[in-house]
Amino acid sequence: MSAQAQPNSFRTGPDERGHFGQFGGRFVAETLMPNILELEKAYEEARNDPAFHADMEYFSKHYIGRPSPLYFAERMTEHLGGAKIYFKREELNHTGAHKVNNVLGQILLARRMGKKRIIAETGAGQHGVATATLCARFGLECVVYMGAVDVERQKPNVFRMNMLGAKVVPVQSGTKTLKDAMNEALRDWVTNVADTFYCIGTVAGPHPYPAMVRDFQCVIGEETRAQMMEAEGRLPDSLVACIGGGSNAIGLFHPFLDDKGVEIYGVEAAGHGLSNLHAASLSGGRPGVLHGNRTYLLMNRDGQIADAHSISAGLDYPGIGPEHAWLHEMGRVNYISATDDEALEAFQLCARLEGILPALEPSHALAKVMELAPKKPKDHLMVVNISGRGDKDLFQIAEHLGSKIA
Amino acid sequence: MPALNGFAPTSSHAKDPPMTQRIEARFEKCRAEGRAALVTYIMAGDPDPETSLAILRSLPKAGADIVEFGLPFTDPMADGPAIQAAGLRALKVGQDTVKTLDLIRRFRAEDQDTPVILMGYFNPIFVYGVDRFLADAKEAGVDGLIVVDLPPEEDDELCLPALKAGLAFIRLATPTTDDKRLPAVLANTAGFVYYVSITGITGAATPDFGKVATAVERIKRHTPLPVVVGFGVKNGAHAAAVAEGADGVVVGSALIDALKATLDDQDRATVGSVEAVTKLVKELSEGVRSVAKRAAA
């Protein structure tokens, strides 16, 4: 991929200023800097406190339902006729996606810091639902910013958040999607710095968020390692996950980054195709600065952020986590992309062969499994992260497939 | 590499570098007149390039001492609805960084004395190329930069190169910037310090003007630079209240609102557009000038 020297380990980043190579950093308004430094300190303390880890483990097991199974997808394996395919079943977590792993960590941290008001941005609504859920559980005020376009295409999740006692604020500015929800959450945070904790849903934003969210999501990869050892007596040969901001992917990938024999594939959303409207920041973007970090962004020649497009609201973001940008430049992870149509096809195949309705986000990963698996030998072990369940997408899928749900 | 290493603070020396000459001369003039400075903000290209240039040119005559010109950006995460909308109006008619520097060049051809501060977000500058941007901005007649999303932790990115290139990097200090943090915030700042009077976005809440003077005093204990105050100043009375305690008053969203009120239903300028802004600037200027301050010690 590039001529950069390979590090001894891919797992030591970021540096003390939050940089993964040239990516990451803390590009925020001065008003937020003291908060970000306070958060960094509080997270460092929590990370080194066994009591914090004990709380994490307790709620992961009894509330989220971890560990999530590593399931041998026998019929899909037979159908594709190549690699032996395993699903990491993150869609079975409480609230239906991997998002809750990170939210649990951040809400426990917010409690330690004495913050009573939680704000979050959400795209597909999964992070918003997870945040609303944990806020309900711990009796915290919850405000979720969601682009007005996403409110429209993810109605079931909006209703869920309302039922959980959260206030959902439809964001009317800009493109009315995830990036604008993040702008609005940052504006709220700038205004309410003293009592508010900003629970970011992905591995983006200013340091320490990309590292902290990654750490909370690494449970996915750590479990996968142990479960694969138990099932097959060895590590997997390849990993596949979808990428919007990239939290489910980094959670699966990170514990394997230094295992050189493990091939890693990150699947971005190619929307209508890479020469058309899409959301593939690495394949179609270049380095820039947005939302507190330097990373690959979709933008025009003047540095104005472009509209992203994906059928999946969760992947519809013009940026990507800075650690992915670095892994891309180092060539450790192969970043590829799947179109809306490919994801829809994979969704249907998975439903019929495995009796599992994946969300549209991991349907992108499955689309590439359909391409990669047949080319691999039968003893090749491939893990795909089923990061969320598809219930939230049924109305939209029905519309695309030309049927109508009453 | 430590963020704040290698450069002595330029601000605390009696002999400031040439970059701040226009800014310094202007504050000197205001002090001599025994008053605070009026700093005005408008967005480049809003609602179209020629109108924004006409407004820019009218500002000094209406009483503005320093002009800030906004560099449009799609995602202004520290700005309120007025400035967000102004940026989008400008982008819609094709405003970009090259065109914004062109407008400043044309302004500078007619006005050699009024300091011009370019204010915006880092991405358009980063994409333009930092070195090329600094050279072009300097050549166009820009005196200083305010880049909202570059705290001192990221000084290597633009602040230090700007100082080297002879452009002032004006820093924002906020109510959350405590005494422990202030020295780092002020270390590489030049020209003046911009105190954001509220924790919040532009154009939102009106600050408690009584607290402004105390906050300015706190900052002045750490720097000899002039301290200007902005966020939430909407009229002549506000301007007068802020002028009591500060070396300058910044007004932005209120001017943009005044302009917006004159636009037609397709966001185009009308005959009254320029005058609506200058009328408010005159009121603000009268507010600032109504407060007598002791001439410079």
Can you put this structure into words, describing what you see?
The complex is a heterodimer of chains A (406) and B (297). Chain A is of the alpha/beta class. Chain A folds into two domains: 19-60 and 98-213, Rossmann fold, CATH 3.40.50.1100; 67-96 and 217-400, Rossmann fold, CATH 3.40.50.1100. In chain A, 42% of the residues lie in helices and 18% in strands. A six-stranded mixed sheet of chain A has the order 3-4-14-9-10-13, with helices on both faces. In chain A, strands 1-2-12-11 form a four-stranded antiparallel sheet. In chain A, strands 7-6-5-8 form a four-stranded parallel sheet, with helices on both faces. In chain A, a hairpin with a 2-residue loop joins strand 1 and strand 2 (23-27). The longest helix of chain A is centred in the N-terminal third of the chain and has 15 residues, at 33-47. The N and C termini of chain A lie far apart (49 Å). The longest helix of chain B is centred in the last third of the chain and has 17 residues, at 273-289. In chain B, strand 8, helix 10 and strand 9 form a beta-alpha-beta unit. The radius of gyration of chain B is 18 Å and the shape is globular. Chain B has 297 residues and is α/β, with parallel strands linked by helices. The interface between A and B is large, with 38 and 47 residues.
Task: Draw up the topology in text.
The complex is a heterodimer of chains A (406) and B (297).
Chain A: E1 19-20, E2 23-27, H1 33-47, H2 50-64, E3 70-72, H3 74-80, E4 84-88, H4 99-112, E5 117-122, H5 126-138, E6 141-147, H6 148-153, H7 155-163, E7 167-171, H8 178-191, E8 196-198, H9 209-217, H10 219-232, E9 238-243, H11 247-253, E10 263-271, H12 281-284, E11 286-290, E12 292-297, H13 322-330, E13 334-339, H14 340-354, H15 360-372, E14 381-385, H16 394-400
Parallel strand pairs in A: 4-14, 5-6, 5-8, 6-7, 9-10, 9-14, 10-13
Antiparallel strand pairs in A: 1-2, 2-12, 3-4, 11-12
Helix pairs in contact in A: 2-4, 3-14, 4-5, 4-9, 5-7, 9-11, 10-11, 14-15
Chain B: H1 21-32, E1 37-43, H2 49-62, E2 66-70, H3 81-92, H4 97-110, E3 116-120, H5 122-128, H6 130-140, E4 144-147, H7 159-165, E5 168-169, E6 172-173, H8 182-187, E7 193-196, H9 209-220, E8 227-230, H10 236-245, E9 248-251, H11 253-260, H12 273-289
Parallel strand pairs in B: 1-2, 1-9, 2-3, 3-4, 4-5, 6-7, 7-8, 8-9
Helix pairs in contact in B: 2-4, 2-12, 4-6, 9-10, 10-12, 11-12
